[in-house]
Amino acid sequence: MPFPIKEVRATYPALADGYAYLDGAAGTQTPRPVIDAIATAYRTGIGNAGGAFPASHRSDAIVAACRAAVADLVGGQPGGVILGPNMTTLTYRLSRALAGPGDEVVLSRLDHDANVRPWTQTGATVRWAEVDPVTGELPVEQYAGLINERTRVVAVTAASNILGTRPNVAAIAELAHRAGALVYVDGVHATPHGPVDMRALGADFYATSAYKWSGPHVGAVVADPALLETIRPDKLASSPDTVPERFETGTLPFADLDGVTAAVDHLAAMVPGQGSRRERLLASMAAAEEHELGLFAALIEGLETMPHVTLYGKPARRTATAYFNVAGHTPRQVAEHLARQHVNVWNGHNYAWELTGVLGIRDSGGAVRAGLVHYNDRSDVDRLLEGVARLG
Ligand SMILES: Cc1ncc(COP(=O)(O)O)c(C=O)c1O
């Protein structure tokens, strides 16, 4: 069955403004059920968690439902879903509890800085996994020489947010686990682009952000609750000491969490299906991935035929994310030109700090990123290609 792109697009009110939204890698638009869920939560009345009255019970139920939804999305357990403002904040928090001076951590130059700097700033000794600057691949073989018995954490992305590279995380995790290290996977860019199974990836921690997959600005890190029981983060004396609550500082955004659940339900329902929500998510996200990669083939083919375009990376397994420069124009000028044609793209290093350094373009303004998500269609791709062609 073809991906029901018209129906999917119709659920996103923002898409009606006529822009081609190719900026999804920096945050997706929001479908109606998510907007409605958040508004309904506020309208119905919500209290702080743990109280004796119904409005508080509603917040407790929202949190529980949200943990179950995120667990379904990534293949984790609800009791191991840590919720918070965004991936960066949660990663800073966890990194402090997981590593420190005397430990070693293995980081990759493929990663978004949110899975790099929190670890370098723990004071642990850093060992770097390098990226092939031509292909944009992260070769697995190097990890055997980087991991040893002092390695506490191997932090690696499930997909690059600029090149789309999907490294072989499972193979990296196997090497890490053999040495007794923990694997912290940044799933922020990968999660919206296909089915996720954090256990198959070998992720001890899987980080994701709902605003990249049609939800509100909420982050989550998912781990085995039994593992979380062994970790003691900094926390207030008065806050719960239970798992996963002890990893969550302050009050959660209850209405937004209801939006997160609605976003997961929305993703699960993009294509008609049966079975549990987890099963429907796997089928729906597989269909979305096929849809995105089909469009992406046309996008890449179009850019490749333009002599004035330089494309970065050619990884074998990738998300539908293109990163390119246009001769004679800065990335910002290209983005401004495309904005005038009502095409949204990003320009800059996009926080892929190490990777844009490897590519030698960090100091010259990075490049242009055009990313596809499930709600993009062929006309979005054509409009991008027409806009870039005009710069030749
Ligand atoms: C791959 C990747 N990791 C981490 C982040 C940071 O996520 P957050 O904004 O939730 O902190 C981003 C955001 O763009 C990202 O693309």
What does the model show?
By secondary structure, the chain is α/β, with parallel strands linked by helices. 37% of the residues lie in helices and 15% in strands. It has 13 helices and 13 strands. Strands 2-8-7-6-5-3-4 form a seven-stranded mixed sheet, with helices on both faces. Strands 9-10-13-12 form a four-stranded antiparallel sheet, with helices on one face. Strand 5, helix 6 and strand 6 form a beta-alpha-beta unit. Helix 3 packs parallel to helix 9. The chain starts with a helix and ends with a helix. The mean pLDDT is 98. The protein binds pyridoxal-5'-phosphate. Pyridoxal-5'-phosphate (PLP) binds next to helix 4. InterPro entries: Aminotrans_V_dom, Cys_dSase-rel, PyrdxlP-dep_Trfase, PyrdxlP-dep_Trfase_major, PyrdxlP-dep_Trfase_small. It holds the Pfam family Aminotran_5. This is Cysteine desulfurase-like protein.
Attribute tags:
392 residues, alpha/beta, 7-stranded mixed beta sheet, 4-stranded antiparallel beta sheet, 13 helices, 13 strands, globular, binds pyridoxal-5'-phosphate, Aminotrans_V_dom, Cys_dSase-rel, PyrdxlP-dep_Trfase_major, Cysteine desulfurase-like protein
